[in-house]
Amino acid sequence: MSQPLNGATRVHFIVGDPIAQVKSPAGVTQAFHAHDRNAYVMPAHVAPAKLAAWLDGVSLAQNVDGIIVTVPHKFACFDLCATTSERAAFLHTVNVMRRNPDGSWHGDMFDGLGYVSALRDRGCEPKGKKALLVGAGGAGSAIAHALVVAGVSALAIHDEDTARRTTLVDRLAGLGQCPVSHGSPDPSGFDIVINATPVGMKDGDPYPLDVSKLTPQTFVGCVITAPAITPLIAAARALGCGTSTGADMFGRVCDLMVDFLLGE
Questions:
Q1: Under CATH, what is the fold of the domain 10-109?
Q2: Spans of the chain below 70 pLDDT
Q3: What pLDDT is attached to residue 228?
Q4: What whole-number distance in Å separates Cα of residue 240 and Cα of residue 68?
Q5: What is the value of pTM for the model shown?
Q6: CA-based angle 118:120:125, to the nearest 5?
Q7: Burial of 43: CB neighbours in 10 Å, binned 0-12, 13-18, 19+
Q8: pLDDT value at position 26?
Q9: pLDDT the model gives residue 226
Q10: Residue-range domain boundaries for the chain
Q11: Residue 45: how many CB atoms within 10 A of its CB?
Q12: Fold of domain 112-249
């Protein structure tokens, strides 16, 4: 049931740059109302250089309870949290923040857990599979960690930012749970291929990987929510591949974020 917007409304933000593509304001607000909470999520378009000042400002409002974090602020917001979960501390990234009792911020990262759940919803069990992940940003880092924890037999990571890619590969390899290596846009030989970059959001974007090397046995995932069906997903479906979209991920991540923001 919808809740009235009034002086008692608790305010949450989703912050990003850009922000127009996000689904969270409606989806998370609806989830709050389903929990009988008078709370709303508002979009905030904030440039990276202004992020810390923006957070200082909104933190002064005593009715601001939470912040959902999207591209490109997930790493920067980790540094602005006073406390985090162990998962977020390992990744140095967060996608959601809630207030501590003293008014400071506590962060966590659910992109990875949500994505692995979305894969399983679509009939793809990561355990024992060989995976290629394209993108080592905030979402990509979390997905990579979750794939390793879920028991993939091997993980290769590709990112044009070689320093960021190397840092993530080295950290995940240090867990000793499976071989983690530097990948490429070539998906040959992989059971699971996931795009965790923004490539595919804009008309005219190239494919984030070499779709000519996909086979019908490859499971293909993408984190992009708009467009709902990216060119990568469309190409994969044309080949008969199993797929998972950004909307699949969003549904699972949304549930985890709502529980976190409500303190459950």
A1: Rossmann fold (3.40.50)
A2: 1
A3: 93
A4: 35
A5: 0.88
A6: 135
A7: middle
A8: 92
A9: 86
A10: 10-109, 112-249
A11: 12
A12: Rossmann fold (3.40.50)
Cis? peptide before 25, omega within 30° of 0 = no
pLDDT at position 264 is: 73
CA distance 208 to 10: 39
Annotated catalytic, 74?
yes
Q: Which pLDDT score, from 0 to 100, does residue 24 have?
A: 86
d(CA 144, CA 158): 11
Taking the C-alpha atoms of residue 160 and residue 184, their distance in angstroms, rounded to an integer, is 9
pLDDT at 208: 97
Task: Please report where in the chains the tokens 């009939």 appear, as a residue.
Answer: 123
Where does 70-141 show beta strands of DSSP type E? 83-84, 96-99, 105-108, 130-134
Output the pLDDT for position 223.
95
**124-134: b (≥16 Cβ within 10 Å) or e:** bebeebbbbbb
d(CA 11, CA 30): 13
Of the listed 74, 127, 129, 202, which one is catalytic?
74
Instruction: Report the alpha-carbon angle 180-183-186, nearest 5.
Output: 140
In angstroms and rounded to an integer, the radius of gyration of the C-alpha atoms of the chain is: 18
Three-state DSSP at 80 gives: coil
Q: Do domains 10-109 and 112-249 have the same CATH topology?
A: yes
Instruction: Name the one residue in this structure whose structure tokens are 């909307």.
Output: 247
Whether the CB-CB separation of 219 and 192 falls below 8 Å is answered with yes
CB 106 within 8 A of CB 100: yes
Q: Which two tokens stand for residue 154?
A: 């091997």
240 burial via Cβ count (<10 Å: 0-12, 13-18, 19+): exposed
SS3 212: helix
What residues pair up with 12 in beta bridges, in sequence order? 41, 66
Calpha distance 257→246 (Å, rounded): 16
Which is it for the CA torsion 110, 113, 116, 117, positive or negative? negative
Residue-level pLDDT at 122 = 97
